[in-house]
TrEMBL record:
One of its GO terms (cellular component) is plasma membrane. It is a multi-pass membrane protein. The chain crosses the membrane at residues 115-138, 144-161. It comes from Fregata magnificens. This is GTR9 protein. The keyword Metal-binding does not apply. Pfam families: Sugar_tr. One of its GO terms (molecular function) is D-glucose transmembrane transporter activity. Residues 1-17 form the signal peptide. The keyword Signal applies. Its main location: membrane. GO terms for biological process: D-glucose import; dehydroascorbic acid transport. Keywords: Membrane, Signal, Transmembrane, Transmembrane helix. Residues 1-167 form the Major facilitator superfamily (MFS) profile domain.
Amino acid sequence: MWNVLLSFSGLVALIQLLFLPFFPESPPYLLLQQGDKAGCLKAMKQLWGEGNYHTEFDDMMKEKAVTKGTKIMNVLEVLKEPSIYPQLSTMLLLLLSLQLCGLKIFQTASLQESIIPYVSLGVAISELVSIIFCSSIIDRFGRRILLWGGYLLMALILVLLETSLLL
């Protein structure tokens, strides 16, 4: 039943891929990152229907005023900031504990006991690299393009995987 399981996640990715272009950008993103007040109000109306959104808009404008002097940092600058070390160590601890939970999965997959720690370490390192890589390219290309491309790639890979399982 692996093919049914993989088909289901591929179907969900395909549905998300088809509907994503019709959704508006996030109103806070449009206002705070892009500085587009008219686009922000238009997105609010599209997401929440007709109504008076001046309170929410004013709150976002206050947030924009507060964050106006702050510098947007990239991933490497964030990693060098000592004030985030407690949060970073918590995330790394969580990532490592999740990898230890995955040991049972590798045992169930009939991998040799001697290589399971290396496979688990490889998965953890690849996840960490992908997190850093994805975080840095989100700022460069924007969320919508990356979500659309990610869903397209996920759907294609799952179709290829499903086809290879059937053959």
